[in-house]
Specification:
The protein has one domain (8-120). 57% of the residues lie in helices and 0% in strands. By secondary structure, it is mostly helical.
Length: 131
């Protein structure tokens, strides 16, 4: 990896589009959330950027505001039975969560690439042979 600075917005935009943050050409994910490593286009190891729980937190934050906020407002406008409210909002919550989660994970990986923040534990093992 070269030492020149990376653009945060470029990395996040490439991650959001599901592309390798390093080259922008190769696919970032092999499956739904499984990171493809190395990149088939440039050979960059994208698996060294651990997204951990951040994508789930951002997904909950975004989807919660998109669905629950209007739901609470709608409850003041019209009164529906609880089972109708659940039948209308639970599928929206599930579908939006499944759509947003890979986007959030790609953006987090792109951000880590731009900040050169990767799994330091792996580097310690590679550089020193021990933890």
């Amino acid at each position: 990896m070269s030492d020149h600075p990376h653009s945060v917005w470029l990395g996040m935009r490439r991650g959001l589009s599901g592309r390798c943050p390093n080259c922008g050409e190769g696919r970032l994910f092999r499956k739904y959330l499984k990171v493809q490593s190395p990149c088939p286009a440039c050979g960059h190891d994208n698996a060294r950027y651990p997204a951990d729980d951040a994508p789930a937190y951002f997904t909950i934050l975004l989807v919660g505001h998109l669905v629950i906020g209007p739901l609470l407002l709608f409850n003041f406008i019209s009164v529906w039975p609880v089972h109708w409210v659940l039948l209308s909002t639970l599928p929206a919550l599930a579908i939006l969560s499944l759509i947003v989660l890979p986007l959030a994970k790609g953006a987090i990986i792109g951000l880590q690439w731009a900040l050169k923040d990767h799994n330091s534990r792996d580097d310690d093992v590679l550089n020193h042979g021990r933890l």
